[in-house]
User: Fold these one by one.
Assistant:
Number 1:
Amino acid sequence: MKRPFLLSSGGILGAAALAASLCSPPGCAAFAPSRQGRAGAAAGNVLHPSRARHHQRRTVPSTRLRSSLSNEGSDVLDKIAAELKELSECASIAYGYLSKPDSSVTAEDVVLACDAVDGAAPSGDSAELYLDQYLSLRQKAHELGRYHLLVKLLKSDPDAYAKTAEFLSPSRIARGDLPNVQDVAYVAADAKEEEEAKSTVAATVAGEDGQPLVVDCELQDMSYNDSPLDKLLLSIFRKLVAENTGGIQNDIPGIKGLLAQGRQYMTMELPEGVTYADHTKAQHTMVKNTLGGLMTPVLPPFYRIFMSGIVPKLGTDFDGKQIGPWFYAPWLTSIVTPTFFGFLVGPSKPNRRSDGERGGLVVEKCKFLQESGCKGLCLHQCKIPAQEFFKEELGLDLTVKPNFVTQECQWSFGEAPLPPEDDPSFPTGCLVGCESRKAMAGRKGEALCM
């Protein structure tokens, strides 16, 4: 009786060869014995010399493949190590700026940081690290450091900060990248714009009554793209204004219609015995009531408790007492506000207050001021009532500082405001192109703009 193949000596040797081929390292499986080779092994034959040379030639590519894979793996590890080293160095750069004491920062430090930002710009060389070529990480580390140097300078020496910012902006630092712009004089970006600004100043210096006028904005008008939320909030706001002004309304769409409502209310004929000083207070009250209606009865009490730290009425001795504002209130308010007040003022973003602390908000180009061109509307239907509303209803100080040259506006939450007449940054007189002044022509003793 013939034994099965696997039990024969040849079968055992063939099975061993097959197992060895399957267990060999990657790349060697291709060199397993062919069917003829297994038969030869089963017969106990030794490979022919020509076949041995053939196998030797076939092992050369496998050696090269293993060497190539090894080199590629080594290159990948080297690149990862280089990227990690760059990441560590960038973190060290940022920490060096952040850890610098406020009092030791000088204008020269800021200039050197500008040089470092320029020097770290990506060159486009394919040999650059990924973090620098595509993410510009080293340059961003220097930009972050430069920003915080400016913040430290703002805290320790505001005058030096203003002079440094004016010197470096916009040639080395974009105006929008400054921590605070309210006391930084606007510098024209090019000679043509500067010449136009000078001609505007020279052409208009006094109004019809001989009083000096405030020069109109030197920048081009901004085009505003209102979101669905902006349109909804503006519609609600206009209805509340109509209710609080005794029914003043119109069919003019958008922000221009709201401003027409405000101008009509501001310039209305006053009853006998009512002075314009009385009417300005009425304007403030109207706006505060409108803001209160917009925020609904729910939001102010919530804000007073969780932001301003005012104890609610619980029947205790501490009812109504303020133990805040909480440390996060100014900063968090500056984060939330741009979403819900964009319909009135346009795009804005958080920045630093005049003292360098968080809680600032800069309006890039105020929609309310640009479209009205009226300092009186700005003062009595925005700045003063907004400051009073935040203090009286929400329990948080607010300073609103418009810049009539650029139509920027700085909102500083947690910062007590100065009265307009005591604020050296708030100019007296009407704007050159103000339409409200024309409506008030001939009405003596009634000053719209303070």
Number 2:
Amino acid sequence: LQFLLGMIQKSPDLYLDELQEVLATAAGVEVSRSTITLSDTLILFYKITCVAAEHLAEKCLNYLARIGKYEAEQLVFVDESSVDCRTTYRGRAWSFQGTKAQCKAFFV
């Protein structure tokens, strides 16, 4: 079980057949997919919420501190165009019950 939990922490978007293959090759344990159940451990397969990999809380706080000295009428924002290439990311990942399944994604 600890091996599976470690694999899920490393790669939370693995499917059951991939976990089965990792168990067979790395740990030498042959099990069926139905044997690999994680609901007893409160780890469930959730829809992924992608978070920008470039997001840093410290940078956000610095930005807010810098613009905080200006009045709202003095600020101008320009929307940057981007392409969403999330089609290369999987839609679901394992996560503890009550927490969001997240992946870091690069938005170009």
Number 3:
Amino acid sequence: MARTWKMDEVGEHNNQDSCWVVLHGAVYDGVYITSFVSKHPGGRSVLLKNAGQDASAAFDSVHPVEIIDEYLTPDQLLGKVESGHVTGRMETREAHSSQPKLESIPSPTLPPLESMLSIAEIESCAMKRLSPKAISYYVSATDDETTKASNGEIYRSVLLRPRVFIDCTRCSLETSILGNKVGLPIYVSPAAIARLAHPDGEAGIASACSDFNALQIISKNASMSPSAIVSAGPGAVFAWQLYVLKDLAATERTLAQIRKIPSIKFLVLTLDAPFPGKREADERFKMAEVAGGAPPQAWGTESALTWQKTLEWLCKHTNLPIVLKGVQTHEDAYAATLFPAVKGIIISNHGGRALDTAPPPIQVLLEIRKFCPQVFQSLDVLVDGGIKRGTDVVKALALGAKGVGIGRAALYGLSVGGEEGVKRVLKILADETMTAMRLLGVETISELGPRHINTSALTSRLFDGLSGLEEIEIKLRSKL
């Protein structure tokens, strides 16, 4: 029988040497929490600030309640808190799903949503609404942020080639991504901790996507549970982002939970951040919070993933199609075609948050077209990073992408208007995309191709070495 503790007993364990916390009426293992203090990705001060206390409200502001069952095992439970001291776990779960308690966010007067005409304008308004913590997390990128800037700037170097005397009365944005019909070629990339932006969180994004029959890739680090998110978007299409953690058992428990959600149509295995980039704005904010000095350097993602071993393991735990996120070279795009379980790739540099001066996705698309164009027939190729205009969407599609992802833009829309703000972001991009297609003389997404764009200004930026495909064939096929 679990022991019952008084809150003053729990309160004695309130420091780095002995750190206990109460979550939804349960007292969690001092050894586990204490050892985790120096590794907590949100900074140790978050744990120490709540040490010896009921941390449920702080926990719920950034985590789904279900993550407790995913990461904490029964042997890490010390017992329960004496009744009357905290709200019961089931009651708190219900409150959590309806009205989360978030840190206070300043609410300056913003112009009406319908008057915001561009993603840049929505971003500008979001900077007035988001908390310093949210800005440091969402906006930051690695080192000098060269890649983050290049992701968007490179689109300016691609010119469109409009045609005339073509009936452009009809235009459709409908397409398919991994066999799933969607109303837009624009999808929402996995964007973590959306409730830092607005209480609607990922559910608000899902509901907005539902209006457009759009794809949402649910972040592994979402602030709401996958089941709650998919319930909010009956008309949306869902995929789920997978990080393989060093704690492989925890990853397998998560995959077991995902198998129970039929609305999730494919898995997105994220590979572009096996180790954290040096995001100085985010680190600077954490340093201000962290007691006793520098932010933690621990990283919970498994860094020893390999093609054969990891994909064999993953196929034992899911029957869903697998998409590899974080492909940044033509060589890896080609290698993905050698594994039947892989049905798609996302060309992404993690929004410039991993390796600075890595190539922007448009450049990688061009290199795939140059060295191994057969990739586009073998896999669905998606891209994300730097999308701010419908013309950007059209350019990526013309180069062979099946879908174009937005991450920060969705969070900025969420911050300025919750679900309605995300709808506004999607509508702006949809309208701009449709206008660009009409002016190009294109009626459907499938008609877009290289003839609609001029990329000659980027020729000098492309990789000019050997293709390396024979080496990949020898190395990987011998193991298959």
